[in-house]
């Protein structure tokens, strides 16, 4: 249980360090006969990769996915799909200045204490570079879910104190277009412009800022999720919290719902053709008792500001002596624009896993 | 992976329906030679049981824990500890009015759709009664953690829009006393009085309200947690989100942290005797890179208002026809006072599991 | 991974010591809407319980199964099925003579060294009494498999050097009748008579003897099993080897097959109606590449002689001093007659688990 | 649970098809600070690779292991170790003759039925080529076990009806030398010569033959193994049965033990310096109650004859029509000489996993 696997039936295991030879993933449990569209996988990776715009890190990584197994003549065979992504930018010298220092609010100190050794280059295993492997695996999951008519949409709904208004989510495909029309990946263009301006200012100050991502999942059958511990939202929450920098998760009404009265919060069923297919409101976020109820799944994820700032900070070194440290090169001033696709990937992995569990009982 | 187990090395599996013969739990993986204090287990169950005060449900359950195995001459033997809690209040007639109806924002509909059958009495398996088994298991975990000097403290920090001020957490034992001095289990007496007054008013209106619980875990070694998916906060988040009615989880700075700048948010190390034992601030919530850093673990959990209200609500029945439904008897107007001990139990189970994982590598 | 659970999707967790309050099991993952025939469960337990005949132990246990959860109005609900079996014969005084002694070829010594404490009464957790819980769970699995037309048949094919001839297995139901017509549970009546005579003689000598059980599983779809580690025969093998006293497992041609030539051993396909539904021979034991091929699954399990003999044996005590020990009361002179139903139960659990896995991909 | 992972705490996941781009493995849970000797890993792979001698297949594969992650400056870092082994001999044309045919006693038919698609080239995923990944992972496990003074030795003890006499196992290092001194890997030189002669004759006849491998594990602490399902021998048995072509497993006295009397079979303790460190005999195979007892672990594994023979065999094709098939090129006439190192690898993986479990309780 060393922690590098996620999922039970649709299970991924990732490997790789920021500046090692490669990162990658094995996807075990992907059903056979799924069309594996390699261009799609690459397009997903491209949404996460560094160097996309002025508000992301300028590290150069082309992030080319190599499928090593599990695909035959364009289709999944039901055997493990291994995807390897070579690291190109392995300039270890860039990181000599942090070899013996613990960067504030990074994992340097905790890794060193846990393992007694660490690959300090670029954060090693604790680097968010690992999430490229998740995105590749998530792309496979999305290809599987597509066959079941399941859609996932995430966008940047908040940066710092800026918050996008609620979206009309009736057409998720259109929202993707809106989101991809700007570099901050907020589907509300007006807010997007403000966010970009704000992040750029932050970046020029050598500082960083946190943000929030909102997600909608549509098209699930009723009953996905496994009581009582593997509730659908509990697994979604764990998935989101496992992403670097995430500090909070809420679904449906979330924290705001905890301020409400039951008479306001209850979602009243609407009968259609003798079936309960909808509710008037969706404070439940599409989940009741841990099981999908057929409504949109909605949740929100909070990301802390990136810890690497371009300013001098006091810190300590391995010997316990006080010293100072400063970020070098260019880092992400705000992580959420690139994290949108990671959020979608992890959501897809959770849903794929639960869909297989749902099918196992063959209702 | 039917979902009724939690944890890997310190693993629990719960069973039981609200109005079946019993609920209970098997704890597999509890180390041997732990003193099993049955009075302590019972006192923990007593904090969760119904009928404690005017602001909790009046259902009568004495919740007596019977240890069936795994304990010999007062000590754990390393074999599975089975704990059974017989149900006393099995009056099925109380629930005939919901046999064919789906209660709004309850799990009736989703369970029926998933399984094609459900024990409708009191919500069956989806009832929060299941959490008594978690509390019993959590008590075993606490007895284990006590041997390692680990403390866990939770209290009600918010009810509706009422919010307790930040506590001085230097003495957790004293905070437990303060918390237990009032029926809402808020460690700030002034706020507690307001909360009780507010909940009682809500109850008289036949309504319910949500709330929030804040938790502190103290005394962990540095390095608990397993990158990259089984981060300590990811497992804590899943644990919390698996509790009935929880809609949100945040640790450290949480959602508020996503509005901050990196220069404000970074926790600067303090060197003491040549070791990095503390940070000036704790926006990280005691966790960096998914691993405990030796500071207090802090997190917050949001609970939606209880779905059963004492008012008529529109709903539908199994045939899809519109009907109305109303809560009967007395239910909890607010779940957080009883949930405090559930939060502590789940936190204890996560920490126990991660402590065994930590030990497995025998550093 | 403390080892008291078996299976992934159809998962059981057992608890209980030989002379504790109870033993029992939670079955998690049993599909909903299965008819739970309690009489059948009890009849299975009766086949394993002690005191059945002159060639089994005379310990008195009625082994009454109490279903505590997961069944509603006679059907499984998809939630955990907890079954508790109270221990009646808890006369601890019988075991004071072994409190400080390690019985040869028993688990006393290894449990004491592993856990630093043990419930020495009747072997505690290491007692084969634990297998009653497996039989109860296996009965549930059989009820599930019955709906899929899957049959399992095991019988005693060898005791000491006595070996039954190969059976005509065309009618498994008839073979069950033949097996149950004698107390040694061998479906060949002539060999059964010899076995009974032999075991009774062994018993009178205060000695014990080993034996072998042969099993046939019929009616599986093609493709059960999960390459490459969870091959169907690998999971069957683990299941069998987890039963007390089992020292060997082979499937299909087994050890004898390792002496054969490929030209003799290959199973040639027979085409019927344009499909490969049978092979001329079945040295493969119904499994190719770890997956069921539609032929009968066949395997054989070897049990060592019971370690408790009614004779003085040299041994040592906890202080390391030499001493002697002798069995008291009456123990099984040969374990296989009662183990037949345990073998069937474990086989049923493996197949149920793999059937759910098979269904998860919804072919 | 798609079956491509093995182990819990020391867990491997393999990938790759016989004629795809590569095969490989992720090892998750290897403790940090283990010296990773790449030459040793390669020397282990060399013992398994094809083309070693006249009695093995002539396929050309250099089987070069590439470590992609988890190792820094020669030591394990506690993060996943990914090892990739590119396939060199990808001549797909060799396999066009089996594209539409199901080879007898191979996995072609069952894979096709399970997945509806298969990479037919060289058996695809069902090829024993996958075991190279196991050998690489096993080498890592051995490096870990070496630090704990644990030794594993396997050799070919039987081929067809030839059987080596019992060995003097007092010096396992010397036995390795004896084993490696001949191409059949039997540590008894006289029997080895007979085996080689026999296999070569079989090969010339275009036939194949089965065999047996015997294993000794030395140096375990007392108490490895987890009752009641994850008994040490149950996990060893599953590990062995998961190897291609294995049809049987027995430990200690095995099948022969099932013919013995308890008075013969019991292992009497010998007290040394006030501790029970040895038993006079070792019919228990070093395991009592599923836990190691400090004596040598001994077990034996039976391999069926290789299914690919150089003769015409009747079979059927995908349309269900009768046809004939014949092996092409050169295949292994007997699998056991190359399987010795696979057996050792799987044994090492089981022990490494159980050692971490053992350590988790920090006795």
Automatic annotation (TrEMBL), chains A, B, C, D:
Transmembrane segments: none annotated. It comes from the Bacteria. It comes from Sphingobacterium corticibacter. GO terms for molecular function: chorismate synthase activity; FMN binding. Its cofactor is FMNH2. FMN binds at residues 125-127, 244-245, 289, 304-308, 330. This is Chorismate synthase. Homotetramer. Keywords: Amino-acid biosynthesis, Aromatic amino acid biosynthesis, FAD, Flavoprotein, FMN, Lyase, NADP. Its EC number is 4.2.3.5. Pfam families: Chorismate_synt. One of its GO terms (cellular component) is cytosol. Reduced FMN (FMNH(2)). Belongs to the chorismate synthase family. InterPro entries: Chorismate_synth, Chorismate_synth_AroC_sf, Chorismate_synthase_CS. It catalyses: 5-O-(1-carboxyvinyl)-3-phosphoshikimate = chorismate + phosphate. Signal peptide: none annotated. It is an enzyme of class 4 (lyase). This reaction introduces a second double bond into the aromatic ring system. Pathway: Metabolic intermediate biosynthesis; chorismate biosynthesis; chorismate from D-erythrose 4-phosphate and phosphoenolpyruvate: step 7/7. One of its GO terms (biological process) is chorismate biosynthetic process. NADP(+) binds at residues 48, 54.
């Amino acid at each position: 249980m060393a922690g590098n696997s996620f999922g039970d039936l649709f299970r991924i295991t990732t490997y790789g360090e920021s500046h090692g030879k490669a990162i990658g993933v094995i996807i075990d449990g992907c059903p056979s006969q799924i069309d594996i569209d390699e261009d799609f996988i690459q397009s997903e990776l491209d949404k996460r990769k560094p160097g996309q715009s002025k508000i992301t890190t300028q590290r150069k990584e082309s992030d080319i996915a190599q499928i090593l197994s599990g695909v035959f003549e364009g289709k999944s065979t039901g055997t493990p799909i291994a995807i390897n992504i070579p690291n190109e930018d392995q300039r270890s010298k860039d990181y000599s200045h942090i070899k013996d220092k613990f960067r504030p609010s990074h994992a340097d100190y905790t890794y060193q204490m846990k393992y007694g050794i660490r690959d300090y280059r670029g954060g090693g295993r604790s680097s968010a570079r690992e999430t490229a492997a998740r995105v590749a695996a998530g792309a496979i999951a999305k290809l599987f879910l597509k066959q079941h008519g399941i859609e996932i949409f995430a966008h940047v709904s908040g940066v710092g104190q800026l918050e996008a208004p609620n979206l009309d989510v009736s057409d998720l495909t259109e929202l993707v277009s809106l989101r991809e029309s700007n570099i901050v990946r907020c589907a509300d263009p007006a807010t997007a412009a403000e966010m970009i301006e704000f992040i750029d200012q932050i970046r020029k100050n050598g500082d960083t800022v946190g943000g929030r991502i909102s997600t909608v999942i549509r098209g699930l059958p009723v009953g996905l999720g496994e009581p009582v511990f593997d509730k659908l939202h509990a697994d979604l929450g764990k998935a989101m919290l496992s992403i670097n920098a995430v500090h909070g998760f809420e679904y449906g009404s979330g924290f705001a719902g905890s301020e409400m009265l039951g008479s306001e919060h209850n979602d009243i069923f609407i009968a259609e053709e003798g079936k309960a297919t909808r509710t008037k409101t969706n404070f439940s976020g599409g989940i009741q008792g841990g099981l999908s109820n057929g409504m949109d799944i909605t949740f929100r994820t909070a990301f802390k500001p990136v810890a690497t700032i371009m300013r001098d900070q006091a810190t300590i070194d391995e010997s316990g002596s006080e010293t100072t440290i400063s970020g070098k090169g260019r880092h992400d001033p705000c992580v959420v624009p690139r994290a949108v696709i990671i959020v979608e990937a992890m959501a897809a992995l959770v849903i794929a896993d639960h869909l297989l569990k749902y099918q196992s009982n063959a209702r």
